[in-house]
Amino acid sequence: MNALGLVEVIGYVAAIEASDACLKSANVSLVSIDKVGSGIVTLTISGDVGAVKSAVESAEVAVNRIGTLRSTHVIPRINKEVADVLFKKENKKETKEEVSINSEVQEAASTEISPLEEEQITINEDSSIKVNNEILEDKIEENENNTDSLNQNELDQAVENESNADSNKEDLSKKSIKELKAYIKKLDSSVTNKELNSLKKEELIDLIDKLSREDR
User: Which of 128, 179, 190, 197 could form a disulfide with 175 if both were Cys (CB 3.0 to 4.6 A apart)?
Assistant: First the structure.
């Protein structure tokens, strides 16, 4: 390393602005941004002597525009021991970051599902699908049974109604025509005597059966 540049400002915003101006104006590297205390922040850059001087001058202009500049300094040929101390500190930070990243990668890898676990998951899913299919088949069969039972009940009811109708006709056939006419009048008062007189006994019985069905 040929030169080290130092820029000391008041406020973190001014330090960021100074860093941006340094890196944009010359071919330098940002070594660190250190918070000293009481709002004082020190920016450290490195590179060729000419590049560092140009970068520090650009930082001075940028900081004076938005904040407070405390001081600047350029060390043309920094002592090796001083450089080792500065960069050793930065290397420790990088090492900690790498260790943290590696730990996260290892943790993510440890949480990956093994082939055996994947196989077990597949078996469990297949078992679950099989159970669900069996439940669905049971419900379908149950519905079919209920439908068959319902149809049979409807059929039995129809047969019973037909049987009752036949029984009623037999009972009505025992009645006289006069009784049948009176019964029809009771079921439907709108039927006239003229209409009733024109009907035979069998027709009267059929009319009673029809009126009785309509009442149901």
Answer: 179
Residue 29: which of 2, 11, 10 has the closest Cα? 2
Q: In what order do the strands lie in the sheet with 29-37?
A: 29-37, 40-47, 3-10, 68-75
Predicted pLDDT at 147:
64
> Is the full-model pTM beyond 0.90?
no
147-157 per-position pLDDT tens digit: 665 566 676 66
Q: Is the pLDDT of residue 15 over 90?
A: yes
DSSP conformation letters of 60-127:
HHHHHHHSEEEEEEEESS--HHHHHHHHHHHHHHHHHHHHHHHHHHHHHHHTSPPHHHHHHHHHHHHH
The candidate with the shortest Cα–Cα distance to 57, out of 72, 44, 38, is 72
Contact criterion met (CB below 8 Å) for 82 and 46: no
Instruction: Mean pLDDT check: name the lowest of 21-25, 53-57, 130-134.
Output: 130-134
